[in-house]
C-alpha cells in the first residue's frame, strides 16, 4: 500500500464520519427568545432602573440649561465675555470625545460599573466648576463634567 492510497483511505474515512454524524463542532449555548423571556428583570427592578436612567438624563440636560441661563452673569463676574461661549462648547467637546469610549468601556467592564464611574466624573467636574475662582478652572470643570455626562447620554 502506497502513501497515496493510505491518504485517500483516511480522507474517505473522515468524509464518511462527517456524513453520518455531521461535522464535529464544539458545542456552545446560544440563548433563544424563550430563555431570554424567562430571565427578564422583575418589574419593580425594571421600573427602578428606568427611573434612575431618566433622572440621570434629566440632570445632564438640566446642567446644560442652567449654564445657558447664567452665561451673561458668569461673563460679567470674570470680565471675560469673549470666552463665555466656551463654557457650553467645553462641555459638548468633553461629551463628544468620551461618548465612544463610554460605550467600549461599558462592553468591557459592564454598563453599571461604567455608568457609576462616569457619574462620579460628572459630579467631580460639577464640583470643580462650582469651586472655580477663574475662567480657566471653570472651563476645565465644565469639560470634565461633559466627560462624565457622556455616560448619561
TrEMBL record:
<protein>
    <submittedName>
        <fullName>Uncharacterized protein</fullName>
    </submittedName>
</protein>
